[in-house]
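Aim 2 progress update. The chain analyzed this quarter is reproduced below.
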Amino acid sequence: MHLTITEISFSEFRTRGSKFFGCLSPADSITEMEELLIRLRSEHPSATHHCFAARVGPFSPEEISSDDGEPSGTAGLPILNSLKSADLINAILVVVRYYGGTKLGKSGLIEAYSTAAAEAIEAAKLRTLLLCKTFFVSYHYTEQSLIDKLAYDLELREIDAEYTDTVSRRYAVAADRYPEAMARFEASAHLFASLREEGESHLIL
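Predicted structure tokens:
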């Protein structure tokens, strides 16, 4: 399991004349990340830097960061490390800086960007992101008690269901329990009209 967010949070930090504004936002894709950057650059046109980091993709997160003109490793990397320390994925964290006339030095920049990032994360409502795999099962109504027991034992989460002459359900199961779930269902496959593995997914709890 990881953590994620569904709402934007903000922070504001000042040091030695410079102002740092943090913005932590959900981002399920690189496109969403780029859209947020465009919006923040429009809202803060006179800012000196728009530094950011993002972790996108629940199973193998793509990690991106930018110093946006600050000395290498003093802005984007500290922001990215803040996301990683919080185990946040599908999120982008932008820190906008207004230069105050006093140079902070590399260590001062790292501390400032880390602080702005940490405060934006602290202000956020963090949610659990459960990595799942999904499968489809169709069965006769007479097998409902068996399905109920399997669903309870394996902590399955129902995604959708359809009721006709048979019951068709799509379930999600925690990725680390998927082999166990498939073994349990396949052991009773002769009782089902259909059993089909699907793919990777995630749920926000």
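The helical segments are 30-43, 76-85, 105-122, 144-154, 178-187. The two ends are 10 Å apart (CA to CA). These observations will guide the mutagenesis experiments scheduled for the next reporting period.
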